Amino acid sequence: MAMQRDPVREWREQYARCCLRVDFEPLNAAPLCASVKPFPGELRILRTTLSPGVVFRDVDLCRDGDDSFGFLISQSREVEATHQRREVRLGPGDATMMQACAPGGIGSRKSFGFLEVMIPPAEWDARNARPDAALMRRFPRNSDAMRLLHGYLRSLERTGFGASVNARAIVYRHLIDLAVLAATTDCRIGESSASAVGAARLSAALDYIAARFEEPGLNIAAVARSQGISPRYLQRLLEATGRSFTARVSELRLQRAFTLLTETRDGKRRITDIALQAGFSDISHFNRIFRSRFGDAPKGVRANHQTVC
Q: Does pTM surpass 0.85?
């Protein structure tokens, strides 16, 4: 008589314990659902999704010599972490921290997910930070540092981590800086000169601009206000990229106008209406910079595209 397969046991023994160095205990008889997605490069960052249960490190697994600190960010409701005889409940976006050399686990009675950033002790030493004081504390998602970390992670997942080793090293340093700030700073960070804070604030501002560039009244003061920073601070961040606020918004609007002009379904729309939809309020200015950017007037670009099609 053939033995019935046990997917949970197979996943635990063939992958979880030997590759991830964790174990998993299901809390009900639901089919196993497990997804573990590592971030690219040398970064020790994992995005994990599991069916109801607890993912944990036991005494045997803790003998592997790993003494890194795991900064865990909940991606679900009603997630509970247990470590060093302490418990903490996390809502979506909240975080806590455990150390890999001591038993502990994180789980839920419902399907759940979390993102984990592993931080070696040497990284804490380099920042003169005390990780022990941060163990098993709840870091709320609405703190300034956590908002910056969330925004920076979203931007990285959307735009990528950089192709070069140097670019990934900078990203790695920024992520650790932000995680350490979230674990050790309760107050508002403000307009910090720290590279990681500047990168995260710039990323959040660029996301805001990309979502609202079609609004004719968009200006740097409005963007800065949305991020809780001064226009002067934001201007410095933007200038460091080599492109001013005005140039960045103009390029986004020009690209949008170009797309609308070359879409066949918009072939009969007035060019003025397209310019207004893209965010331009001065049609003469639009015609002038459009020609400078694309080498032809809007009317010519549309006519050439329709001829080719």
A: no
